Amino acid sequence: xxxxxxxxxxxxxxxxxxxxxxxxxxxxxxxxxxxxxxxxxxxxxxxxxxxxxxxxxxxxxxxxxxxxxxxxxxxxxxxxxxxxxxxxxxxxxxxxxxxxxxxxxxxxxxxxxxxxxxxxxxxxxxxxxxxxxxxxxxxxxxxxxxxxxxx
Length: 151
Prior knowledge:
Layout: H1 3-18, H2 47-59, H3 63-68, H4 72-77, H5 80-94, E1 97-106, E2 109-116, E3 120-127, E4 133-137
Antiparallel strand pairs: 1-2, 2-3, 3-4
Protein name: DUF3887 domain-containing protein
Domain DUF3887: 51-135
Pfam families: DUF3887
């Protein structure tokens, strides 16, 4: 098993075990979420293309466009300004965004290897059946990036 395939397998196992536990940064939505309401026509974009466009929008400082890719439940929890705040905190830790290096799709999970000035890391995006993002894991320092509501 290649290193990349092994990493995706480990991520899938962890996500399966932790599905009911909120994920860092944007969190995860339960599998029983309602269908997404269309707010932007994603047309025939593949999940991989959607993930890449989300990353491009987020790190291209187009927070309104990045927000549109989120599942409506996440959109209720975080505003485009909230995305901007979290992106800025994240970039302080990893350095300036450089570029997307690689992306892999495994079911509803997309792993995107991204280069920053201080680190190259793999960001994990989770999608619902409607092609909307239900969770994002930015592993550099997830604890300070959580948007989970205090309960």
